[in-house]
Amino acid sequence: MKGATLVALAATIGNFLQGWDNATIAGAMVYINKDLNLPTSVQGLVVAMSLIGATVITTCSGPISDWLGRRPMLILSSVMYFVCGLIMLWSPNVYVLCFARLLNGFGAGLAVTLVPVYISETAPPEIRGQLNTLPQFLGSGGMFLSYCMVFTMSLSDSPSWRGMLGVLSIPSLVYLFLSVFFLPESPRWLVSKGRMDEAKKVLQQLCGREDVTDEMALLVEGLDIGGEKTMEDLLVTLEDHEGDDALETVDEDGQMRLYGTHDNQSYIARPVPEHQSSLALRSRHGSLANQSMILKDPLVNLFGSLHEKMPEAGGNTRSGIFPHFGSMFSTNADAPHGKPAHWEKDIESHYNKDNDDYASDDGAGDDDDSDNDLRSPLMSRQTTSMDKDMIPHPTSGSTLSMRRHSTLMQGNGESSMGIGGGWHMGYRYENGEYKRYYLKEDGTESRRGSIISVPGGPDGGGSYIHASALVSRSVLGPKSMLGSAMVPPEKTAASGPLWSALLEPGVKRALVVGVGIQILQQFSGINGVLYYTPQILERAGVDILLSSFGLSSISASFLISGLTTLLMLPAIVVAMRLMDVSGRRSLLLWTIPVLIVSLIILVISELVHISKVVNAALSTSCVVLYFCFFVMGYGPIPNILCSEIFPTRVRGLCIAICAMVFWIGDIIVTYSLPVLLSSIGLVGVFSIYAAVCVISWIFVYMKVPETKGMPLEVITDYFAFGAQAQASAPSKDI
Q1: Which domain of life does the UniProt lineage start with (predicted)?
Q2: Residue 434 in contact with residue 476, Cβ under 8 Å?
Q3: Angle made by CA atoms 242, 246, 250, in degrees to the nearest 5
Q4: Could you tell me if 349 and 341 are in contact, meaning their C-beta atoms sit under 8 angstroms apart?
């Protein structure tokens, strides 16, 4: 995971620059006002231009990133930062300064919007939350370092505000260099454009291994939006035939064959008998069918059941599904790096034989680089006799059957490739098309890690593992029995935004979650507390203490702001450790109540005067608690969730909608705060913020599902399934 971590760190420099600039402009405005003698309205405009620029660029950044890619937009962000830093260093008047601040907003808007998306699309599911907390950490770190710089410059006789603002161009130059020469393009975006060979190379770089077959198959399946989806309760085992037991797609007992993404990889699955079906699956189905009239979104219960008592997958290379078997879904043990011995040979021979047929059928034309489109091999070539739309008898020379001495029987703990987070993917061929199965071990206590002996299994009795499966139609077409994804690039790589996809039930449900949590975050009080902090600390006597060291009031305020920001960093580190352990939803549910209590105590300390020392201590403690718990939960998690819950094809478009809501909310809160303070006072403002935090907690409890450790494609499929199942609940039994 070293490759993905380094890429995430490099991309997050954009958030570092945003934090740096936020603190710098706050300090520089003191000296800008003295130098240019600006009226109050113009002072507000100088600060607001950055927010305006971020809001404007956000409206189009998502669709453009879906069209041109994530990496070019990050490069553009670094260029904007660099150019605006140079212009601010020169700016002779307020008009040029406002133009530079507008460019700064463009850079900040691109970074804040697209860095979480880029990290989510390049990070493994096991550490995706941790890496996506880096923007919060580096942003706060940038603010701290900037306050230190401003404080140091404020000690001079004539501080230069141009120098303060122009320093931004130095770290932005580093960001530009890394964006151009180090950051790869998102593999998910490359797959969405049919550039399979490039996507494979990027995945190999990120994963640090040659065999990325499972990841490639998953990314292609992620191009699907909508479609009918069902859940099944299965008993699964690795297929271990030597040609003595024939198995068609489904036999009379419901036993079926699921194909893996590798050569010589298949497994046998059978439905769990109704009387033995897990309580977890029945409760999942029941929650979707029976809770449609309850305010709590049944999708929350559905996601929650997937995490109940699951074996921890983070950082563990052992199979999370079959801890006793080792690696059921592992590749051929004799192949180097887990790669099938004849994989490359099969690819080459397959394309030499079949490429002309594909071109004539799909009208895609000739292409010498046959791996550079969506017809590249996603599933191992099982046999050359499958043109007849049937699964051949294992005795007919099929290579599907596994050898007797497979890793399943050895139980040697070989690492399982899978699709991340303990999830695995299989395919079933039925009626001329493939069904896609997302599989994970059932999380009920009675089934966890259990090996179930089932009469009538292979060789008269076999050991099966209890797994839940989300089933839908695969993007693989009928001819993909030959081992190729028959989705022409010109059909898959849309030239423009897929606005119609926003009407898909799963996408609409995800937009409700994303937009809702972004609005509530902005009105939860962070801007108000930041505005009030200097007054709180002044009341506590911190400024008097600092003035005794010979510091001016301006320098003391900069130092106080820096120390306040410094307090956030340990809390963010804690959040990084918990994000993929406790989960996003859990962190929100136990950090938001602390925000509520902090705001209520602040209100009480304003209404009830005990003593100057006690009131100051209460206010200071509440401010510190609020900051620390905000950056642990409500600070980073909304952006993390928004980068996870949308399908690949419309992720940029949807994230742009959520980001636009974020920036508009930021503008409203920032410029309504002085008006509210003058009309209803500090008590009224903080009371409103506390009420919004209560609403936020209710919204999270009712609407926000847990997404930790799940591949992005699985998350979006479960959103689609939940929306589809709830919509059909009144008319039919789910």
Answers
A1: Eukaryota
A2: yes
A3: 130
A4: no
Helix (H, G, I), strand (E, B) or coil at 526: helix
Rg (CA), the chain: 28
Cβ burial of 92 (10 Å; 0-12, 13-18, 19+) is exposed
Quote the tokens at residue 214: 């499972």
Q: Which residue ranges in the chain fall short of pLDDT 70?
A: 239-253, 262-264, 274-294, 308-417, 443-463, 477-497, 534-535, 538-541, 543, 729-734
Please report the pLDDT score of residue 384 as a whole number. Answer: 33
What kind and span of H or E run contains 466?
Answer: strand 461-473
- With a CB cutoff of 8 Å and minimum separation 6, the contacts of 623 are 529, 532, 533, 536, 537, 564, 598, 602
| Amino acid at site 172 | S
Helices marked H in 475-525 — which ranges?
A: 489-492, 505-522
Q: How does DSSP classify residue 108? A: H
The two beta strands, 256-259 and 461-473, are unpaired
Helix and strand element counts for the chain (H, E): 26, 7
- Can you say how many angstroms the Cα of residue 366 is from the centroid of all Cα atoms in its chain? 37
Contact 133, 636 (CB under 8 A): yes
Structure tokens at 443: 């999380």
Task: Name the strand (E) or helix (H) holding 201.
Answer: helix 196-207
CB of 509 closer than 8 Å to CB of 722: yes
How far, in Å, CA of 290 to CA of 308, rounded? 21
Q: Per the structure block, which two tokens stand in for 228?
A: 């009918």
Nearest to 436 by CA among 134, 214, 665: 214
The DSSP element (H or E) to which 331 belongs, if any, is none
Q: What does the alpha-carbon distance between residue 426 and residue 415 come to, in Å, rounded to a whole number? A: 17
The 10 Å Cβ neighbour count of residue 414 is 20
Q: Is 52 helix (H, G, I), strand (E, B) or coil?
A: helix
Non-local CB neighbours of 164 within 8 Å, separated by 6+ positions: 24, 27, 28, 31, 149, 150, 153
pTM: 0.82
Count the residues in the chain.
734
Structure tokens at 665: 């909310």
CA distance 236 to 467: 7
CA–CA separation, 123 vs 165, rounded Å? Answer: 33
β-pair type (256-259, 266-271): antiparallel
Other CB atoms within 10 Å distance of the CB of residue 445: 11
Angle of helix 70-90 relative to helix 94-122, nearest 10 degrees?
A: 160
User: Checking DSSP bridges between strand 433-441 and strand 461-473, what pairing results, if any?
Assistant: antiparallel
